[in-house]
Amino acid sequence: MTRRVSVTGVGVVAPGGVGVPAFWDLLAAGRTATRGITLFDPTGFRSRIAAECDFDPAEHGLGPEEVARADRYVQFAMVAADEAVRDAGLDLRDEDLWRVGVSLGTAVGATTRLEHDYRLVSDEGGHWAVDHRAAGPHLDRAFSPSALAAEVGGRFGARGPVQTVSTGCTSGLDAVGYALHTIEEGGVDVCIAGAADSPISPITVACFDAIKATSANNGDPRHASRPFDASRDGFVLGEGGAVLVLEEWEHARHRGAHAYCDVEGFATFGNAYHMTGLTREGLEMSTAIDCALRHAQVAGSDIDYVNAHGSGTQQNDRHETAAVKRSLGAHAYATPMSSIKSMIGHSLGAIGAIELVACTLALHHGVIPPTANYRDPDPACDLDYVPVTARAAVLHQVLSVGSGFGGFQSAVVMGRDDGRS
Length: 421
What we know:
CATH superfamily: Thiolase/Chalcone synthase
Low-confidence stretches: none
CATH class: Alpha Beta
Structural class: alpha/beta
Number of domains: 1
Largest sheet: 11 strands, mixed
Number of helices: 13
Order of helices and strands: EEHEEHHEHHHEHEHEEHEHEHEHHEEEE
Shape: globular
CATH architecture: 3-Layer(aba) Sandwich
Strand content: 15-25%
CATH topology: Peroxisomal Thiolase, Chain A, domain 1
Number of strands: 16
């Protein structure tokens, strides 16, 4: 018998506010947290806007040594994990730590630390032969994305499977999906799962400038992220982190934990098509949705809400719309579908986990976050995108989907705990 997996705690660091209350308040109000870049001087770049986190690590309990050794994205994960474990009421002193795992995702790892220290060792890029003595003492940690899961695992003493997942923009969904499988298969009873990224740096902005994937609406950053809108011109880069405590249901019940919902299904596929391109037919994402629905043992007609990848690029929004219609059929037209990237930008590997926290809260509160800035319909995107204003709804099953450079396509199904035994 497959073991049931519940979400018993959530934590988040996101643009517009640190912590679950601030995050949910922003989403429910339909506010945007996109603005001009302040983390570095963006003069000369094509896209000079982003969704930044106003984040002081000391304010959220990180000490000087932790701040010194951990890149910004790892700090996001540590703070989000602290909140999620508290929210779950999980006392790890009472746990068999060999039965506690960590599964965290990141797309670009320690981009900020690597770029900062390279500028130091190369005298602002002026020397090919670098001076290693100018680097910080923790540069080696920045070199490997495994530091993300290792740091969080060490923080909580987790001795079960501890892994970092890096599958581009689906990293957060995939990390939670792998945690689901690990619990279902009996490998652990508890898994600290999620993702973090802090990509707002010159090298990342330059990469997306080169392929014109990001919005150049620098004069109106609050309205620049416009998923599914006919006037959309690319995504707005973001940053952040989110963690969910996933727990085998009997284990959670035994300790009297509250379960927000269950993680019921997961699937991920590669499209073997193009590094950044997508077909309009939506077959790749539809395959992931269909497989996740089978895993969850629910039909497409059971889905009450789709949390869209909704990046705001022309091809992604059309591909995703086609995929949902392929998988849900006529029910797609009656199913609300929205993109929170309209409010908090696209934080690459972190966004999937942040969106799963949004799904958890949507199920919990009975409220669907809106697609902010959606004003002008695109005939090729003809579903209900919940424009501008959040919507009250009775939600039982929700679907969250993601698409990543490299051809990654992932889907997660979550369901509200309705007193099943």
